[in-house]
Amino acid sequence: VKMHALAAAAAMRAPTSTSIARARRIHGTAAPLDLRRGHATDPCSKRERFGGARSSGSIAVRAAVFDGGPDGVPFFALSDADRASELRADTEAVRAAADDPRAILLPFVSGRALVVEVDPDDSRPGVRFAPAEARLKDVKAPAVDGSTDEDPLAFERLSFLGFREEDGAPVFCAEVNGTCESRVRDAVARNPAVTGRIKWGTLDTATSTKDAKSVGPEMSRKDAGLVAAAASLLRWRRNTKFCQKCGSPVKIVKSGHKAQCSDSTCRAPYYPTLMPAVLTLCTCGDYALLGRNSKWPRGFYSCLAGFVDQSESLEQAVAREVLEESGVVIDPTSVRYVTSQPWPFPCQLMVGFRAEVAAKKVSVADAVCDPAVAMSTVVPDIGCEVTFPPTPTLDIAELRDARWFHKDWLRAQLGKHVDPREAGTGG
Questions:
Q1: Bridge partner list, 163
Q2: Between helices 91-99 and 17-27, what is the axis angle to 10°?
Q3: Which of 98, 305, 373, 409 would you call most buried, defined as having the most Cβ atoms within 10 angstroms of its Cβ?
């Protein structure tokens, strides 16, 4: 996935009929919403106030995006949903969203997304998979007398991702297993939004579980963002079982976005982990510095990257990581931010920078610089200056190789491997 240059700030858009409808869907229409002020015109409930604020605020969030593709959003970003984060602590509002007949579930099995292979579509080249989403109303099971098994699809086990942009459907995700998995697969088979995209074979043969990171590039950008967000959140839930302070079990609250110690004397809170990392394009004149990890496929090179340390600025992390991995010293005054990209595998946020590296300079005689002079017996006193990028000094524990590539050569290579989803978009 390529990281693109930071686009100009998008202008604020006027509220659309879709956003107004979404704001009123759960909160009712008793009090008209004034989206310019972000609240209802009449005194209203907490949920109505949230509705007004969410509709106007979410527009601003979606407008402040970066140029990552035809929709202006970096790949793996959650672009097809209003996160509605202010509703997460409102159990009544989220439960109402779960009861919405349009609510959908993104199921995961043992940490892997349940997906369906779809028929190729000329309007979406390169898209081979879509989430095997189920309508939440189709997976709800009645309580069984005498059963001691806890239902993985109980409301408390669901994680709320927000409202889908295209149709306003509330989106939830959950881990499924055993008989619950069979129930979910049956629900997927009853969802025409999924079955309608299969043109050959059966749903059973078209459905499989995939790692979110590997299958994402073969999905549409919007689907990849939803699946990536769900995978990261569910992974955090699986790994967050006990309090780090006292060892007591934790309880997942806030619609799956917070864990709290169950000990009344502790009550320590925990939130999904986010690890910032810097990714830097280092240039020296017309050359770019790229490196290769020993675990990567042969011929695979990337900008230099690394995690940010404690009490370290992003700019300091850029300089340190480049020096650690390649032995190249950057000009600290040249570091500038370009863009960011979520990389929730498991929980990184990639922050892209550019930095300049000073060229090495060597003075040589004109006899060396000019072949015609070099053939004569006269060597002038004056010389000329030759500049070139500094030679990388590798830390083999970090990189297998690092070298300088000319921009024209890189441009030619990238032109041979164009993502069909970006063809004609200038991406």
A1: 82, 170
A2: 110
A3: 305
**Residue 302 and residue 401: Cα distance in Å, rounded?**
11
pLDDT tens digits for 186-223?
999 999 999 888 867 788 889 999 999 999 989 988 89
Please give the Cα distance from 358 to 289 (Å, whole number). Answer: 12
Handedness of CA 27, 29, 30, 36 (dihedral sign): positive
Under 8 Å between Cβ of 83 and 161: yes
Pair of tokens at residue 146: 């005498």
Closest by alpha carbon to 171, among 218, 228, 210, 109? 228
pLDDT tens for 287-342 read 999 999 988 888 889 999 999 999 999 999 999 999 999 999 999 999 999 999 99
- Pairing between strand 275-284 and 348-356? parallel
Q: Nearest 5°: phi and psi at 23?
A: -65, -35
Neighbouring CB atoms inside 10 A of 289's CB total: 26
Distance of CA 319 to the CA centre of its chain: 25
| Dist. CA 416–CA 426, nearest whole Å | 14
What is the distance between the alpha carbons of residues 164 and 172, in angstroms, rounded to a whole number? 10
Residues 108, 113, 118, 122, CA torsion sign: positive
* CA 295, 301, 304, 306 torsion-angle sign: negative
Check if the beta carbon of residue 137 is closer than 8 Å to that of residue 103. Answer: yes
Task: Indicate left, alpha or beta for 162 from its phi (over 0: left) and psi (-120 to 50: alpha).
Answer: left
Give yes or no for a contact between 241 and 249, defined as CB atoms under 8 angstroms apart.
Answer: yes
d(CA 319, CA 317): 6
Helices (H), 190-242: 192-195, 203-206, 212-215, 221-239
Model confidence, pTM: 0.76
Query: Would strands 401-406 and 250-253 be described as parallel, antiparallel, or unpaired?
Result: unpaired
Which one, of 353, 297, 296, lies nearest residue 320 by Cα? 353
Contacts of 390 (CB under 8 A, 6+ apart): 284, 328, 329, 357, 358, 359, 360
The residue behind tokens 């050959």 is 200
Q: Where are the beta strands (DSSP E) in 74-204?
A: 81-82, 104-109, 112-117, 129-131, 134-135, 159-164, 170-175
Collapsed DSSP state (helix, strand, coil) of residue 415: helix
